[in-house]
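Before we proceed, please read the two lines closing this message. Let me know whether the structure tokens fit the sequence:

…
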Amino acid sequence: MSEHGAFMASLEVAPGIFQIQVPIPYPLKYVNCYLIKGEGTALVDCALDTQDTKGSLALPAGKEVLRAALLEHSLRFSDLDQLVITHHHPDHYGLAGILEAEGAKVSMLDVELEHGHRFWTEPEEHNAAGLAHLQLHGVPEETLAGLAGAMAKTRSCVHPAKAPVTLKDGDYTELAGMKFKVVWTPGHADGHAVFWREHDSVLLAGDQLLERVTPNIGLWAYSRPNPLEDYLASFKKVSALDASLALTGHYRPIENIRERIREIEAHHQERLASLEGLLKAGPATCWQLSLKLFPGNYNLAQRRFAWAETLAHLEYLVHQSQAKKEFAKNKFLYSL
């Protein structure tokens, strides 16, 4: 165990599957990548291209941490046959282009190719749309300027694949000679996928569910219109698999999957109730509501995620006819 209570790198967490922890510059501290060894080698998710830093973060270069972990198995980047991506978020996708250049075939769900992947390959279009989206939902100008700079820094750590291969929901794919079912689980990301190894019911779960925190469910400019509804519906698909072990994108594996799903569902119901309570005070922008729903000192990136999560919950209430949305003075306002 590490000082943060998570497993250390290169631990075998299921037959033929090894967890590799790579530090990330976010509160979750590590992302879990999974090396699969069998008839060949496959990697599930790949961290982002952080560089050596000094000061409070003191992060080692993500690429070198991953390289060192593979060397424990006498593997180099060029020995990887496949890289499979659960979703496009930078901590899961950032090194994809580098590993692809070394010879790994990169795969992702077809939905993610059309949504999340394009976020990284069409930066000008998505940056402009993203800032306009934030502005329409009440984010102040000084915050917008800071967010633009933070996003540019993140983009410098992400190398998208040039020729990714697509997978489809319900397909079976082989990873290192092992058969996995591809299951589309939108919500945390539009094209999020989990991979289920049927013979021993092991689930490569990405960020669909996590052990100690609830995954961020945010509504972005390029998102499907109701990500929280998508996310809760995805749990029905996960439950139907009846997996015995979930290997998650952060923290430790989860054995009692259905219990954890119930806990996360209850959390979102509580958050929706809290938001309805805040709406009783009268019409407000998503930004104003997010400051009340998530009080406290947050850095710019955390505040952006809090805003996006608030928006996902507001739009869920609107789609359920439990809240109203109107456009006034160049801003969207929400009310009961």
In short: DSSP finds eleven helices and 14 strands in the chain. The two ends are 47 Å apart (CA to CA). The chain has a mean pLDDT of 94.
